[in-house]
């Protein structure tokens, strides 16, 4: 897991420029004002592992918060901490106040953290699918990037302006879809969305961006 965590942080060097270029490719018109991705929210779907019991649960927690296994300030870039750190955490357990569980007993073990989401299915018929997890992650990341762009405009002293179809009403609708349970939605979907929204801080960003666009529109 330490090797995976180090790879994650080192991959920023290529992943963030790729995401920036992809966004600009998808947008029409002038790209000068296109959002600039700053972060990668990871999703790990664990299908098998060498752990059992409490260590299995701890492994999922570590996957959702990999920073505890990495020295991100190392001179040559992100570097692994001593192997004893991972061994000790697996043996004694690991918890973090920002980790939110959303698994269902007998169905899945799942955690969301600031760095990403870790999910392990125990019942393929009843658990969330990879597509469902990815769809939620992509929606959250896209809106996080969009609201961050609006925040940067405000901090630069500008009156944020967006095409009407992506104005404050668009953000109001997005917030409603992400925070309100649907009539036929499963409890797992609700728990997943609540956990990811809480740990990403997106709900507050949506409110702030919506207010900024509304004030700018007069």
List the helices and strands in order: HHEHEEHEEEHHHH
Rg for CA atoms: 19 Å
User: Could you tell me the mean pLDDT?
Assistant: 91
Distance between the termini: 51 Å
Regions with little confidence, pLDDT below 50 for 5+ residues: none
Helix content: 40-55%
- Biggest sheet: strands, sense, closure? 4 strands, mixed
User: Which shape, going by the Cα principal axes?
Assistant: globular
Number of helices: 8
Strand content: 5-15%
Secondary structure: number of strands? 6
Write a structural description.
The mean pLDDT is 91. The chain is of the alpha+beta class and 218 residues long. It has a 4-stranded mixed sheet, sandwiched between helices. A two-stranded antiparallel ribbon has the order 2-3. The chain has 8 helices and 6 strands.
Question: What keyword list fits this structure?
Answer:
218 residues; alpha+beta; four-stranded mixed β-sheet; two-stranded antiparallel sheet
């Amino acid at each position: 897991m330490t090797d995976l965590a180090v790879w994650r942080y080192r991959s920023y060097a290529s992943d963030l420029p790729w995401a920036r270029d992809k966004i600009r490719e998808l947008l029409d018109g002038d790209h000068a004002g296109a959002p600039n991705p700053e972060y990668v929210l990871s999703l790990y779907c664990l299908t098998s592992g060498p752990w059992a019991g409490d260590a299995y649960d701890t492994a999922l927690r570590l996957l959702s918060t990999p920073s505890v296994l990495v020295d991100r300030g190392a001179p040559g870039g992100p570097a692994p901490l001593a192997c004893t750190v991972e061994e000790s955490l697996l043996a004694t357990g690991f918890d973090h106040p920002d980790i939110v569980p959303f698994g269902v007993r007998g169905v899945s073990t799942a955690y969301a953290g600031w760095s990403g989401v870790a999910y392990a299915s125990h019942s393929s018929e009843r658990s969330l699918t990879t597509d469902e997890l990815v769809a939620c992650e992509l929606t959250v990341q896209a809106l996080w990037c969009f609201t961050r762009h609006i925040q940067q405009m405000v901090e630069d002293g500008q009156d944020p302006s967006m095409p009407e179809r992506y104005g404050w009403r668009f953000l109001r609708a997005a917030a409603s879809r992400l925070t309100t349970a649907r009539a036929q939605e499963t409890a797992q979907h609700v728990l997943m969305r609540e956990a990811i929204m809480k740990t990403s801080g997106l709900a507050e960003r949506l409110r702030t961006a919506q207010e900024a666009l509304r004030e700018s529109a007069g």
